[in-house]
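Lab meeting, item 3. Inverse folding demo.
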């Protein structure tokens, strides 16, 4: 039988798990600014994923994670990356942009048919030139 050593987060006396917390110096304060100009503070770890930051914003502000877009240095932050991947440090301000309800605008061009009826250029031109 091999002697399996417990990971360092377990007590030796089998009383229970010792929860490690990062020292306060390992967290940082960020500012989150909305498009309406309101700003709030958020304490996070540099090693937190962006999706975790969005979850904190949801708890504080009630905005669903799926509707949040965080912008820093003109770039949208991707959920699976950590804050330190973007070199985000103490005191940085992230912009919070909300997704549009209808989703993205369809920019594909459809077939164009010329206007018909009373509002053609030929019909409106005389009205404009002779008021």
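The presenter then showed the designed sequence:
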């Amino acid at each position: 039988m091999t002697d399996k050593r417990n990971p360092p987060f377990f007590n030796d006396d089998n009383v229970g798990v010792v929860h490690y917390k990062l020292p306060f110096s390992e967290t940082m304060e960020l500012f989150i600014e909305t498009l309406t100009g309101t700003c709030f503070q958020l304490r996070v770890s540099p090693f937190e994923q962006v999706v975790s930051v969005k979850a904190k914003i949801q708890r504080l502000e009630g905005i669903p994670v799926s509707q949040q877009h965080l912008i820093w240095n003109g770039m949208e932050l991707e959920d699976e990356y950590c804050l330190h991947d973007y070199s985000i440090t103490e005191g940085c301000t992230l912009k919070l942009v909300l997704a549009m309800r209808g989703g993205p605008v369809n920019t594909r061009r459809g077939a164009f048919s010329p206007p018909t009826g009373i509002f053609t250029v030929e019909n409106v031109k005389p009205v404009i030139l002779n008021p």
